[in-house]
From TrEMBL:
Residues 232-333 form the Peptidase M20 dimerisation domain. GO terms for molecular function: hydrolase activity, acting on carbon-nitrogen (but not peptide) bonds, in linear amidines; metal ion binding. It comes from Lentihominibacter faecis. Its cofactor is Zn(2+). This is M20 family metallo-hydrolase. Signal peptide: none annotated. InterPro entries: Amidase_Cbmase, Bact_exopeptidase_dim_dom, Peptidase_M20, Peptidase_M20_dimer.
Length: 432
């Protein structure tokens, strides 16, 4: 069974969605539950409804869209990703996998004959709040889908502006900018509504996520396709250092308890320590920091920063993180600065489904596509789903390995080839 995706339609969709940003001159900024999110939802939902598809939105605002030919009681092959971005992010992270799965949906809807002998249904899924840009925790929608998050987390997850996830969901109004298309479920957050967010994994046959690689491997090696076998785990801590604020001119260097200098020493110590890693795969990042009072002429009194360690080996993640925590405590003690460390979040490394890795590798080889089986340094909603259902991931190259920045890009030919490969894989799965 072969069908052809429509490259022009795919690229048109991606280019239109690229304009739904709060920062038009500086990458894509589209946070979950905001105005640009509503525009993107409306655009995708309208396209799906034009092909007769049915749309369901859960209380966390994850979306599932099914083909009109789907039959009740059959298991489902799902594909999709997220539409939210980091601040000033790229135009492909997440939305590429959504537009790819939408292109598969539109192609299948146009070719109902291709589904005559299908054993399974096909659905597009859009996971809400994957990046954690709003509430500081990645994969939020899929964590509710799998039950890792439950009702209490609606209050624990709070944005930088002090709004909890519960308050944010309660403040949504149902319609997109056209005032007609329902883009949010405003049915409330009752126990029953939250229970309905959980997927019945007995009904899930396969989950496939198409994504840009976000790293340099495929581009550097001149390959057009990656088939993901494992995904890095991560452990995130939040460190709060409290020194003594004081006058920046009048306080001698020997009488300072500077929280920012202490933070700088801690972060550099963490970097130096992780660089001792034998296979050079463990990574450590401090990407977020708040300084108080953040005035040029006041010695910083309080500094709060995030620190995350990632690897595909959980024992290495824990060993490095525990050693980094010891280093931070020792540095703070030496500088007589108070130190509080809170565990923030954690996800385990995982291996995706061997049957899918083998089937996709065979297909890529048959097509003579230059590909490799590789791991993913970034986390994805597929990580959550993979614990409960057969899950596969397809990567396309990121030019110069840039991602989470405005420069993020992929060649049109690679964009199109990845989506065609997704369609081929979906068709194969539908007829398993
Ligand atoms: C999500 O993009 C992550 O890997 O942090
Ligand atoms: Mn992503
Ligand atoms: Mn991302
Ligand atoms: Mn991500």
């Amino acid at each position: 069974m072969t069908l052809q995706t429509n490259e022009k339609r795919l690229l048109d969709n991606l280019h239109t969605l690229r304009t739904f940003t709060d920062t038009p001159q500086d990458g894509v900024t589209r946070f979950s539950y905001g105005t640009q999110d509503a525009r993107a939802r409306e655009y995708i939902i309208k396209r799906a409804e034009n092909c007769g598809c049915s749309v369901s939105i859960d209380a966390l605002q994850n979306i599932r869209i099914g083909l009109p030919t789907n039959k009740p009681g059959r298991k489902t092959v799902l594909s999709g990703s997220h539409i939210d971005t980091v601040r000033n992010g790229g135009w492909l992270d997440g939305i590429y996998g959504v537009c790819g799965a939408l292109e598969v949906l539109e192609t299948l809807a146009e070719n109902p004959d291709s589904l005559k002998d299908a054993s399974f249904n096909y659905e597009l899924v859009i996971f809400a709040e994957e990046e954690g840009s709003g509430f500081g925790s990645t994969m939020t929608g899929s964590k509710f889908i799998t039950g890792i998050y439950a009702e209490a987390d609606l209050d624990k997850l709070v944005s930088d502006t002090g709004m909890s996830l519960r308050q944010t969901l309660q403040s949504l109004s149902p319609y997109g900018p056209d005032g007609k298309t329902i883009v949010y479920n405003t049915g409330g957050l009752s126990q029953e509504a939250l229970q309905n967010v959980r997927w019945d994994f007995d009904q899930v046959q396969t989950m496939l996520e198409l994504h840009i690689e976000q790293g340099p491997v495929l581009d550097r090696e001149g390959l057009s396709l990656g088939i993901v076998d494992s995904i890095f785990g991560m452990r995130v801590i939040e460190v709060t250092l409290t020194g003594v604020g004081n006058h920046a001119g009048a306080t001698p260097m020997t009488e300072r308890y500077d929280a920012l200098c202490t933070a700088a020493e801690c972060i550099l110590a963490a970097e130096a320590h992780v660089k001792t890693d034998d296979d050079k795969r463990t990574v450590v990042t401090c990407g977020k920091m708040d300084i108080e009072p953040n005035c040029s002429n006041v010695i910083p009194e309080t500094v709060r920063f995030s620190l995350e360690v990632r690897d595909k080996d959980e024992t290495k993640i824990d060993r490095f993180m525990n050693e980094i925590i010891d280093l931070i405590v020792a540095i703070a003690e030496k500088r007589q600065v108070n130190c509080e460390i809170k565990e923030h979040s954690k996800s385990s490394p995982l291996h995706l489904t061997d049957r899918l890795i083998d089937a996709m590798s065979k297909h890529a080889a048959a097509l003579d596509l230059p590909y490799k089986v590789m791991d993913s340094g970034a986390v994805h909603d597929a990580c959550m789903i993979a614990k409960y259902a057969q899950t596969g991931m397809i990567f396309v190259p990121s030019i110069n390995g840039r991602s989470h920045v405005p420069e993020e890009n992929t060649n049109d030919a690679d964009i199109a080839a990845g989506v065609q490969f997704l369609l081929d894989t979906v068709l194969h799965e539908l007829h398993e």
